[in-house]
Design brief:
3-stranded mixed sheet
Length: 245
């Protein structure tokens, strides 16, 4: 574990955004360029967006382009991670590829519109991955925080309407930006936010790109000590008593 991930206080991460289209080869080329740029700037972790491999224009196209974990896209990104000797976190169903092995962990989105998929998230040391719609459910982040998670990541592809209304409030990092095809545009503004809610970096809402951010876990721990919300949280049954019978 010590070889796979540096001490978290030393991590320098890159948060990326892009405009995925149905052209998987072109999307992969953009991802490769972003990862290489991040590595040149010193990143040891690279966060790519939800739907980085493709966003189809309709259901049929989406299904026809789908791949398994053994597919070419995941294999190519794992190669890039190994070549750059970094931990590349790849988001579609969220598999984590390192330079030590092809797939370290897999996370599948827990919350889908009108669909229940009762799977647990995975943790990698003190990190945890959620997905887009998951961030509207605080129970996930609260549960993982109680288990020791210190870095929560939510790769997302918010629509323009919901992104403009809710993104800053939810304080997580979206990763898709701009028009993917004539039926779909995403909000962009991939963010990195500190534990006090200060935005450390913003990729903007127009173009693919990345930001580089230092992870300061000491500030996180100080914030938790000074504002011990989890210690003050009542048991779940207390909140249930407020519900009307």
């Amino acid at each position: 574990e010590g070889t796979l991930v540096k001490e978290m206080s030393e991590l320098y991460k890159s948060v990326c955004q892009m405009t995925a289209t149905p052209d998987k080869e072109a999307n992969l080329s953009v991802c490769k360029n972003l990862v290489e740029e991040a590595k040149q700037k010193g990143a040891s972790m690279v966060f790519l967006p939800e739907g980085f491999d493709y966003i189809g224009s309709n259901r049929e196209e989406t299904l026809s382009l789908a791949e398994s974990l053994e597919g070419e896209t995941i294999s190519s990104l794992a190669q890039i991670a190994r070549y750059g000797s970094l931990l590349s976190i790849i988001y579609y169903i969220c598999d984590i590829s390192s330079f030590l092995r092809d797939i370290v962990s897999v996370y599948r989105k827990a919350h889908l519109f009108d669909v229940e998929l009762p799977e647990k998230g995975v943790s990698l040391k003190e990190s945890w991955i959620g997905h887009c719609y998951d961030l509207r459910f605080p129970e996930l982040s609260l549960a993982l925080q109680r288990q020791g998670a210190e870095i929560l990541t939510y790769p997302s592809a918010f629509t323009v309407a919901t992104g403009a209304a809710h993104w800053e409030v939810l304080l997580r990092a979206p990763a898709q930006v701009g028009p993917h095809h004539d039926k779909r545009s995403s909000y962009g503004h991939a963010l990195a936010v500190d534990p006090w809610g200060v935005v450390l970096g913003d990729c903007g809402g127009e173009q693919p790109g990345l930001i580089m951010v230092d992870i300061n876990l000491e500030k996180l721990r100080n914030t938790r000590r000074n504002m011990p919300v989890q210690e003050h949280r009542r048991k779940t049954d207390f909140y249930h008593t407020m519900e009307k019978k």
